[in-house]
Amino acid sequence: MTRxxxxxxxxxxxxxxxxxxxxxxxxxxxEQGRNEMSGPFADRSGGAxxxxxxxxxxxxxxxxxxxxxxxxxxxxxxxxxxxx
Length: 84
What we know:
The chain is an alpha+beta fold. The protein has one domain (2-80): Alpha-Beta Plaits (2-Layer Sandwich). It has three helices and four strands. The chain has a four-stranded antiparallel β-sheet, covered by helices on one side. β2 (35-40) and β3 form a beta hairpin. It is globular, with a radius of gyration of 12 Å.
């Protein structure tokens, strides 16, 4: 599998009720062996997670099913990441 860096930047209309849903989503990915690490930025502007997927299309489909994205509260960007 390839690694993808998923960056989430908060929008002004973030609904705090979505945060536990997003965290549960990340926990599920971790249980599946797809989320290597995740966490918020220190300035609370957003966060990131390292996702394992077969392709960019699959990574986008996963990231776009994240409640952070589906709620409209975060801008989500996905990068293929060539880690060592």
